[in-house]
Amino acid sequence: MGDETLAQIKQVGSTVDPWDLDRFQKVAKALFLLGVHFPFWRDWRFADSSIFLVLEILHFIHKFFFNHVLQWCKEIALLWWCLAHQTDDGEGTSDDCLHVIDFMYQSQSPIQTDSSIAQMESSLKDDFLVPKLELLLSFASAVQNNGGLIQYTADVSEWLLITHCKNTFRQTNKNKDFTMQVVCILDREESMQSFDMYTLMCSNNISLLNIIKTEAEDVSANNPVLDWVSCVLPEEQQKIQGPHPCRNYFAGVLLSNNAETALHVTRRPDQTNLTINAIAAMYHLVDFPEEYSRFLGLYGADVELTWRIFDCITIWHKFQVQLHSVFCPSMIMPSQVVQAKPPSDDFPLGCGDVVVVKAGDDSTSYIAQVRMVFQPCPPPCSRVQIPSYLTQPLLYVQPFHVALTPNEQPELDGQVTHEGRVIPLAFVSHAIELVPIFGPSPVPPTVTAAMSQEVYDQFFLNHYGDKETYNMIHGMEFF
């Protein structure tokens, strides 16, 4: 490929004087050349520019999306509007946009296999052979020759250019020696950070010898300085600037059934000593007592006796969900908060986030909205032995069902039921997001993000939240 390019440049140079820039550029552009007479790699004997000049994620993916794909979506009104209406013009265009977005997410994967490369190629449709998109067809060969393209992204260097050059340049007097001034400013900042660390350690009589923290082997993406400070002086770590390590909930005792998800509730609940009927009235859930009794019956419990003994209900308004990275299983991701708040002035219909529920390895997954987090407890100072199925918090959830749209099955329109069920917290697999299908009518001004999941009945599953979420749930089937 490189030899062919050099041969074409030589052919153009033999017919047109390369120093006649205007004519040389016109002839070169006609052959799809850039018009460079002496490429810098021309005398690299064993180099092939088509291999070592890799496609760059920041410009070819991110900026391409905002400059082109996003504009396409705006020109067809809104992407989700077109999907909801399924118009003849919007349906094909919006599907094409989704294919491009799928390709962009797949191309950024740090780990690529033959199957993932084939899936990435299949996301580009045949009718995308246009100049702006044809370049994307070379991503597969670039990955096969150089590995994951995300490792070559200019995002890191571009950000360093902002923080260490542009921002620092504004602090100089902008004379000719601004380069030395920038270096001096950066050197002083580093010296002050080192001095702050030294004085912090000395003032607390902490040894300056590094301490190996076993937990850091699992949370491998931490700042080593902050990780050390959090170990030897946890109460002082807020004095050190930088990305603080995420808390490792996998070290706790509450894990999902497949042990791939860590779950956490605070030691101090939000409310205690409540009754089942009081909670049902607080959350406006009329079927909660019935579903709670049904849950107890599944474990062969004496429902009436259990109601009487464990009559002190504790509730939480939220819990944490933490996962390992899809691409690097040794790395723990920051936890996500799943809220389950009762109706209030801020949330007139309550606030319940959405999770994926999976009872076991062989069971199917389904999507549900968490409406309540609770745990039945015996009275204080009671010696009653707590059964195993009540030793962890429980959830009251309302599942979403995968169904045909009213256009495909008109009898479904208007027949919406909110069926609830009680499940153990360990059934939660991970948290996800839903996007309401707003439909053809305008959105009422009274509808807010706090109540959209209660007002609307049909949703899209948003698997484009981030790359981890995309690769985690892309291709999953829900029932």
Written description of the protein model:
It holds the Pfam family DUF6830. InterPro entries: DUF6830 (IPR049233), Plavaka (IPR041078). The protein has 479 residues and is an alpha+beta fold. Among the domains are: 77 residues, no CATH class; 215 residues, no CATH class. 38% of the residues lie in helices and 14% in strands. Strands 2, 3, 7, 8, 9, 10, 11 and 12 form an 8-stranded antiparallel beta sheet that branches. Strands 1-4-5-6 form a 4-stranded antiparallel beta sheet, with no helix packed on it. A hairpin with a 6-residue loop joins strand 7 and strand 8. Helix 4 runs antiparallel to helix 6.
Strand and helix map with partners:
Layout lengths: L1 H14 L5 H10 L18 H4 L4 H19 L3 H7 L2 H20 L6 H9 L8 H4 L4 H8 L8 H15 L8 H26 L20 H9 L28 E4 L6 E4 L1 H8 L4 H11 L4 H7 L2 E5 L1 E6 L12 E6 L9 E2 L1 E5 L6 E13 L16 E7 L20 E4 L3 E9 L15 H4 L3 E4 L4 H7 L6
Antiparallel strand pairs: 1-4, 2-3, 3-8, 4-5, 5-6, 7-8, 7-11, 8-9, 9-10, 11-12
